């Protein structure tokens, strides 16, 4: 970033293990301070943090053991500010390019605290890293609300889904009787039907009796015809009428069949068993209907959950994130689809550095300790990314290899050339107390 501020030059004297060190870090990319253990590498980073970050970073034993000269720190920033700490009290002095004096407040404007202590960020939990990122991009509260909404919908859907499964399981376990009627049988209805049949049968019997009556009348009248010739005309008339009535009665009674009440009697006798089957069928139907209802609710809740997840995705996609493919999922930091514990070492460094830069875009540098955990390919990849992003990193590594920009040995910069990052050869120390 064009406006970010970096370290042009630093001079350190009598701080912790440092006797006298002068470094001009590369503007963009990785400056590695190498050396064996206990030679003063970490003291370089501690000195920078103290000089720029204030007394909160002052080492508990700041003065080099055995030195009679107090610490002396001198840093020149890319914006022209000169930062100094010297004297008995290591007082801070900040001078701008115009010669105006300032203090810690002037430094706080562009020095990001996490840039001075990047391991603190890297060692924080995944959720803490995610919260830092969300705070930077300003969507933390919105995302928290959406995640809470998604959690509530998910729990509701889980309950509905389990209930639907239970209802379906219950329905499958219920016996079913296809021959049973759909509705429960009422004994009074069956008895009423039986009485109606008996009444119709009674009417049929009356018709038969009437036919028999007319049949007997015909026989009697035939006898009278022979006996009462004198009344023939009258009786023949009566006969014809009786014959007509007989014909009508016979026609009405012909083909009549009485209805059986056996089925109703059986139903009345078995009414409890029939109703048990009906109730079982009704229970099964109700369970299946309940299951379908809960399944519909489950489907609807699934749509709502997907909608909330889409809203979360859109919220993060439109946010001004420090890196492409960097996001937050389920409260965890995610980069290229991987959570922190699955990221490569290089990706972890990229994410941490990018977030620090986003916290304070004016701060163009970070300090990194103990990069010996990184292999050379990872270091090279990280260095290329820093150059591409226009960022400066000053790091330590237990090594005396060619990847180191300078080598610290016994509190000094080693005299022979070390490193392949265009650093100038360091001359043998000509240090004396209080003077570089």
UniProtKB/TrEMBL annotation:
GO terms for molecular function: ATP hydrolysis activity. Residues 9-305 form the Rad50/SbcC-type AAA domain. Pfam families: AAA_23. The lineage of its organism: Bacteria, Bacillati, Bacillota, Clostridia, Lachnospirales. This is Chromosome segregation protein SMC. The keyword Nucleotide-binding does not apply. It comes from Dorea formicigenerans. One of its GO terms (biological process) is double-strand break repair. Keywords: Coiled coil. Residues 222-318 form a coiled coil.
